[in-house]
Amino acid sequence: MFYIIKNSYFCLNFKSLKKLLPNKKLTKKDLISYISSLWNLLTQEEQSYLFDQLSFKYYNKNESIYAEKDEPLNMLCVISGKAKIFKIGSSNRSQIMRVIQVGQYFGYRAYFAGERYVTNACAFENSLILQIPLNCVQNVIVKNVRLACFFVKLLSIDLGISDRRSITLTQCHIRGRLAETLLFLKESYGLEEDGATLSIYLSREDISALSNMTTANAIRTLSNFSSEKLIAIDGRKIKLIDEVKLRRIAQIG
């Protein structure tokens, strides 16, 4: 079930969007505030051009956004919900590469590299995704140096994160991998009002996929961390109790 919005407004009543849409009415102009970091770099003419091209699509939880070997057509940005970027290995095991949160852009690297997607993306939860045709984005980039630098910075940040995590996930022991994942989730999504509970609730399978380990090892290591009073677990909620020790474990691997 999805909606592609091309008109100036549309109505929704999904529970997941109540906070975003208190009046259950959404306009394109309302949603542009979520991409202000990009939008403010454009001239009025460029804004008008992209405004006419952009659309929005609603994805249900676990619904595919794009698949490996698909042709990249749209630059994507999460407006509500979360998306995950993952790859399926030779053993048919899923490895989560990144989790995309509100306001983050994705789906554009393959287009600029002149290749098809090498990863998959799906909605981590019910999500609203903004999409702008990449050929239109490129048309603006060739005339707007600030926008070109914006994408260079985004790609550079993503490359740095990927480099750091690749070392952790391939060279660290299980405890180091899981500790790094918990800290990565804190830095990416922050904490709830108590200042300790991660603001993202993942299944054990998702945690294992983020940490490059089996689900059984993830469950066992989480239990060990809980016994050592490093974290507290309540279903899918994880509270960080001793962040200093978690960082030490992540650093020594």
Characterization of this structure:
The chain is an alpha+beta fold and 253 residues long. The protein folds into 2 domains: 9-168, Jelly Rolls (Sandwich); 172-252, Arc Repressor Mutant, subunit A. The chain contains 10 helices and 12 strands. The strands form 4 sheets. Strands 3-10-5-8 form a 4-stranded antiparallel β-sheet. Strands 4-9-6-7 form a 4-stranded antiparallel β-sheet. β6 and β7 (94-100) form a beta hairpin. The longest helix has 27 residues, at 145-171.
CATH class of the largest domain: Mainly Beta
| Low-confidence parts | 1-24
CATH homology-level superfamily of the largest domain: Jelly Rolls
Question: Percent helix among the residues?
Answer: 40-55%
State the order of secondary-structure elements, H for helix, E for strand: EEHHHEEEEEEHEEHHHHHEEH
Structural class of the secondary structure composition?
alpha+beta
Please state roughly what percent of the residues sit in beta strands, choosing from under 5%, 5-15%, 15-25%, 25-35%, 35-45% or over 45%.
Answer: 15-25%
CATH topology of the largest domain: Jelly Rolls
Main beta sheet: strand number and arrangement? 4 strands, antiparallel
What's the mean pLDDT score? 85
Tally of helical segments: 10
Question: How would you describe the oligomerization state of the chains in this entry?
Answer: single chain
Distance between the termini: 43 Å
Strand element count: 12
Total count of domains: 2
Shape: elongated
Main-sheet strand order equals 3-10-5-8
CATH architecture annotation of the largest domain = Sandwich
